[in-house]
Amino acid sequence: MPGSPRLGRPPGSDLALALAVATGRAITEEWRGSDLYRWMSNRPAPEGFALQPRDYRPAHVEAGRGVLAGVFALGGATLAIGVGGDPWDRPSPDRPFAEALHRFDWLPDLIAVGPEGAAEALRLVLEWRRLFGRWNSFAWDPKVMARRVYNLACAGPSLTARASDAETAQIAADLARQARDLLRRRFGPGAAESATAAAVAGVALKGVAGTKLLDRALERLARTLPRAVRPDGAHMSRKASTTLELLFDLQTLDEAMAQRGLAAPEAVQRAIDGLAAAVRYFTLADGGLATGQGGGLRNAAYVAAARALDAVGDRPLDSALGGYQRMESRRLQVIADADPPASGPWSPHATATPLAIQVLVGGHRLIEFQSGRTLETASSVQVADGRLGDEITGFPARVLGPRLANADTLVEVQRHESPGAVWLDMAHYGWSRAYGLIHQRRLYLDLEAGDLRGEDRLTPTARAQGPDGRHFVSYALRFQLHPGVRALVAQDRRSVLLRIPGEAEGWVLRNDLLDMDLEPAPRSDRPGQQLVLRGQRRADSGARVRWRLSPARPAGATASPAFTRTADLIDGAPPRVDVTSSRA
């Protein structure tokens, strides 16, 4: 209800859960590493490979040639081992590199090189088997193993084309054993991905072993897919990139089953349809994906590979999906995060950044959702140094992953449309407990003028109107600029000219109240800048900042006068709607 930002978690609940998970994991790993379990999971033995499933993800031949030359570039790091070297007997540069190495992320690229690449891939797989084929807690972690099983299944016949009968039997047996082990994962994040990888392995393997494995995996998918895919088709993590990756995997399974003369179950078909619709929704004007909630970058060619199988094509999109709202005009495209972040086990990469926005102009990215996990790094408003969620640390984080806690902030949204405009009225209550404030954000897209007008309010609650509201609170409105965007702040420090490389026309962002500052964006992977507007007001009076993003006038055009009325920033927008009156 209004005024209640979140339910919160009982003190010590993460520690208690971590202890239970760690205990269960230790027992399970002891069993998984035993000779008896290995013997049981090796039966029945497959009879080789029946077919080669098609992975629709684009392969990078140049990366494969690099591996052939002894250079692995994975997870943002590089390891040079020399021609014919062994990457398994030396330390990896960092953990992301090691995970990608053991996931066999390099295998599709190496196979794409041709027979020479396949021969090298066979050598590397057999070397991995010699060191890690029996058991290793890191290499056999389900998150790592699921991708390895998928990549091995999709490379099977090409990988073993030059292998001996004994080597082929070993690789097929290893694939079946790992796929069976994946099916232990009955629920939670990754369960659907694990079951999909096991199913792809089952359909690729020949004989009774493959048939039984496929049947078990499809039965598991019928239970796990509805838990991983929201009714609207988005992944439960609310990440567009995760939605896309699961779609790729299911497309591979569907095509491989068709090769065998089998029809994918209804649960798989329904998930493919929903995920494809979500990928259409998340595909932006530049062909890439939206990056809300920590979603990874996926370029246009990569996204197009998945969408090539989408028979629906470019039919009109829904305005809301996956907790996001989408608005667009001829030149502007806006995506707003209008839902709480994923919670619990779905939140290792979630961001506590309600009402953050991503903006594209002329098909180019200008403003990003966030560059981190908190509002200090988001295109939204932060009060003082407050946070709306905490990343668990210490022992619980080592066991459960870096998930968010206490981030289930109530978010409300109303959408309005007219022939010449579309606008959103949104609010979240994350600041009400600590500061007695509600953040309300209006986004107004003028379809005729081609500009975006915003209004951010910090509205006092009943608590802030009392004695607690007499103190001053600071706040900051931030816009995370896409890497490469150049910014020039005007002398009045209330407007900034934004230019995208290669584009002649710039865009101007103005506001009616606060000075603007350019600061380094707090991201380590891609250098960039953020635009920051800071202010301070009494809690019981709240605050309001109005801003406007519009095209800069071309050189030689008559300069427009400075804003003489602060209302100009929001002129043309209808009267303000009380967002607390209803919920989307």
Tags for this model:
single chain, 584 residues, 9-stranded antiparallel β-sheet, 8-stranded antiparallel β-sheet, alpha+beta, 33% helix, disordered N terminus, Beta-galactosidase, Chain A, domain 5
Structural class: alpha+beta
Instruction: Specify the CATH architecture of the domain at 323-555 and 563-576.
Output: Distorted Sandwich
Count the beta strands. 21
CATH class of the domain at 323-555 and 563-576: Mainly Beta
Mean of pLDDT: 89
User: How is the main sheet built?
Assistant: 9 strands, antiparallel
Residue windows where pLDDT falls under 50 for at least 5 positions: 1-7, 555-584
Instruction: Determine the strand fraction and express it as a percent band.
Output: 15-25%
Please state the CA-atom Rg, rounded to the nearest Å: 26 Å
How much helix is in the residues?
A: 25-40%
Total of DSSP H or I helical runs spanning 4+ residues:
15
* Shape field: elongated
Taking the alpha carbons of the first and last residues, their distance comes to 14 Å
The CATH topology of the domain at 323-555 and 563-576 is Beta-galactosidase, Chain A, domain 5
Short structural description:
The chain is α+β, with helices and mostly antiparallel strands and 584 residues long.
Would you give an account of this structure?
The protein is of the alpha+beta class and 584 residues long. The chain has a domain at 323-555 and 563-576: Beta-galactosidase, Chain A, domain 5. The chain has 15 helices and 21 strands. It has helices at 13-32, 35-41, 61-68, 95-102, 107-112, 115-132, 142-159, 165-182, 191-204, 208-228, 240-259, 266-282, 300-307, 394-400, 432-435, and strands at 71-74, 77-80, 320-321, 324-328, 332-337, 357-361, 364-368, 381-383, 390-391, 404-405, 411-418, 421-428, 437-446, 451-460, 472-481, 486-489, 495-499, 507-511, 516-520, 529-538, 543-551. The strands form 4 sheets. Strands 3, 4, 5, 6, 7, 8, 15, 19 and 20 form a 9-stranded antiparallel β-sheet that branches. It has an 8-stranded antiparallel β-sheet with strand order 11-12-13-14-21-18-17-16. Strand 17 and strand 18 form a beta hairpin. The longest helix has 21 residues, at 208-228. The two termini are 14 Å apart. Mean pLDDT is 89; it is low at 1-7 and 555-584.
